[in-house]
Amino acid sequence: MKNELKIFSPATVANVSCGFDVLGFCLDTIGDEMIIRKTTEKGIHITKIVGYDLPFEADKNVAGVSALALYNDAKPNCGFEIEIYKKIKPGSGIGSSSASAAGSVFAINELLGRPYNKTQLINFAMKGEALASGSEHADNIAPAIFGGFTLVRGVSPLEVLQLPTPDDLYVTIIHPQIEVKTSEARAILPKEVELKKAITQWANVGSLVHALHTNDYDLISRSLKDVIVEPYRSKLIPFFNDVKLATNTHALGTGISGSGPSIFALSEGIGKAKKVEQAIRNVYSKTDIAFETYVSKINVQGMKILS
Amino acid sequence: MKNELKIFSPATVANVSCGFDVLGFCLDTIGDEMIIRKTTEKGIHITKIVGYDLPFEADKNVAGVSALALYNDAKPNCGFEIEIYKKIKPGSGIGSSSASAAGSVFAINELLGRPYNKTQLINFAMKGEALASGSEHADNIAPAIFGGFTLVRGVSPLEVLQLPTPDDLYVTIIHPQIEVKTSEARAILPKEVELKKAITQWANVGSLVHALHTNDYDLISRSLKDVIVEPYRSKLIPFFNDVKLATNTHALGTGISGSGPSIFALSEGIGKAKKVEQAIRNVYSKTDIAFETYVSKINVQGMKILS
Q1: Which of A145, A169, B175, B299 pairs with A272 at a CA distance of 20 to 30 A?
Q2: A283, A184 in Cβ contact below 8 A?
Q3: CATH number of the domain where residue A180 is located
Q4: Chain A interface residues facing chain B, Cβ-Cβ under 8 Å?
Q5: Number of domains in chain A
Q6: How far from each other are the two terminal CA atoms of chain A, in whole angstroms?
Q7: How far is A148 from chain B (nearest CA, A)?
Q8: Position A37 pLDDT exceeds 90
Q9: pTM value?
Q10: What is the CATH number of the domain that holds B156?
Q11: Do residue B121 and residue B136 come from a single domain?
Q12: Which of A191, A202, A228, A229 should be substituted to probe chain B, the one whose Cβ sees the most B Cβ atoms within 10 Å?
């Protein structure tokens, strides 16, 4: 059995327009790298953090907290060192904390000979996620661990469904370099919603799941609507409506990634995804906001062992 | 081409617990029969109604109104006589008006050589349904026309998705002989619902659609929850909670059929469906309410031509 693993822990998009709090999917071209090493010294120790300024104390670090949750359950006869090469900017809305939380437990589970299944790993990772966001949720962690599209039917008890992913589905992401606090994005939402709108939303969730099962890109497009959350949260993202308008021609649908500020657009084929990227760049280039864009195939594998 | 058709127009269950206003499925052992006959005399004429006291004037009869909607669009060189053998009691909550509305347009379309597709037929049938319920909705008509499980993604424009139906899925129905007015069942619902509950509901809609695609009976069972509508409407149905409790052992899930008063329970296999029927009969036999029960395989064909 190996004593050290280098892994790729992917960025993810949660909510996916109609599926607020339950749907998510996994990216391929952006994610963190982590090295996890077995040690004779017991405990979880974070020994290196590259990229962003994050706490080294395991119980104050997202990757450390999730690792500790697994570690205290497994009670192995060894310890683990964690090196974090953080590529996903914290607060970007593409699952930065989830990548950290999920990566450490995935790798430790591998090094221990896989005592836990994927759903159990998500349960541990949710402890780390809770440190970052204040509440245990799995809509980013689930696609990071399972890959592809996931539906979190419930968190208590945790139940994650792995949905099929059409072969030629790509996502374009823009990350405007502004801060949207998850707490603010939560606070802006109403506690109650119109029943009529809720019905529209669950019709679209059902349709999207059906569309993923039937490889129906047109239906994916028609289902990617959010009448509940987007009207509120889009106000927190500058030029959201311009981006939506500009991506109209080539994208299947465009929405807020997680609680923002990143925006995602799904497309059929890499050609259209790149045209969508250009359309978004044209919008944001005219503003004074710094931004990054990414194009990625939907990653059906999830976590990857690099070496 | 035939000049006369005898058809079976099936009863249906709308809502299906989590899928309020969007999901429905089709029954096999209960439905109306209708005879539709081409006539040289133009227009739509209802010539016979057996079973229940319903208006003979085409523009005041549900089957007549939907037939007229199709007729006025098709402008054929003939007319049609309609005989209605009404088996589904109006107001039972298993799609009595939908069976009438859908049956006439289905048969006339057949006699005209199928100028319209199923979605177009549903559009015509919705005009008849509107006469009965005051608003155009398709959650009973769609499964009557398509068969199996259907999801109405939207009514304007109308979009109906045909969902797969697991092979061994049966439904048990109890129809307590009491009146629940659709208008009252509508009025009892709140205009707004908690966002948290709406999320639970759309997680279950997504899960149920996934479960139908994957033949996962356990997941069907876990998804058959209604946290939005059932808490209100179940109060209108005597002994609803007793029925739910009694069917717990063998049914995958139990809920209100449409706006009630009928209750449906889905089961894996006819054996369990019959045990569920017995359990329900045991509950209702102790009350002074008259009732009927039915057991049916899910009818994936929908309308049937009998001769």
Answers
A1: A145
A2: no
A3: 3.30.70.890
A4: 18-23, 151-154, 159, 161, 163, 189-196, 198-210, 213, 219, 222-223, 228
A5: 2
A6: 13
A7: 15
A8: yes
A9: 0.97
A10: 3.30.230.10
A11: yes
A12: A202
